[in-house]
Specification:
single chain; about 210 residues; five-stranded parallel β-sheet; about 50% helix; binds shikimate-3-phosphate
């Protein structure tokens, strides 16, 4: 049987929310967007949570939303771009067929410039460089994905079709891979452990 949950991870602007909704519709499942869930529960926007309560508080709410999403079945989960950075979140994601949506920084920048959603972490005089730097830092944490999909030059509908195909044909096998559990420990954490400095491993040390 194919996986009973699909989680979309990736940088802001990679299309997780739109592709997630389309994919859920194609499969006949529910869709769950962690940012929208937080906003619904808290009654304020994600940028307001960052501004009024700080990023740490946002990350706690985010982890609770990820845990709630991953306790459901027959659901496509669109995650915020920072979700795979926390070990706790990666552990929850392991119960899903995990799909990374990727695109070059230039394409992400173009899409984000047209987006109405404010991303507090991307506010910068030079957003494209900020995107490139943050994306490089995060790439080791995106390794948790079972499937990597390049979205550049493709419509959300084409991307959703590819994921549906791979989910049908490959997700059962992917979730049965015994080496999968090892991916919860990120590359920086593995490197730190090998160097005997496991306690110093921090998200962002790509
Ligand atoms: C964030 C990405 C945003 C949102 C918040 C933090 C991040 O979601 O969760 O602004 O850390 O990259 P999107 O990936 O949907 O933009």
């Amino acid at each position: 049987m194919p996986a009973q949950r699909i989680a979309l991870i990736g940088f802001s602007g990679s299309g997780k929310s739109l592709v997630g909704r389309m994919l859920a519709q194609k499969i006949g499942w529910a869709s769950f967007d962690t940012d929208r869930e937080i906003e619904r529960n808290e009654g304020i926007s994600v940028p307001s949570i960052f501004a009024e309560r700080g990023e740490d508080e946002f990350r706690k709410l985010e982890s609770a939303a990820v845990a709630a999403a991953c306790s459901r079945t027959r659901v496509v989960i669109s995650t915020g771009g920072g979700v795979p950075l926390a070990t706790e979140n990666r552990r929850h994601l392991l119960g899903c067929y995990i799909v990374l949506l990727d695109a070059p920084a230039s394409a992400l920048h173009r899409r984000l410039a047209q987006s109405a959603i404010d991303r507090p972490l991307l506010r910068s005089e030079d957003p494209e460089t900020r995107i490139r730097t943050l994306k490089e830092e995060r790439t080791p944490f995106y390794d948790i994905a079972d499937l990597w999909v390049d979205t550049a030059g493709r419509t959300p509908n084409e991307v959703a079709d590819e994921i549906r195909h791979e989910w049908r044909t490959a997700s059962q096998h992917a979730l049965a891979d015994p080496a999968r559990e090892d991916r919860v420990t990120s590359r920086p954490e593995r490197r730190a452990a090998a160097a005997g400095t496991a306690d110093k491993a921090q998200p962002g040390q790509g």
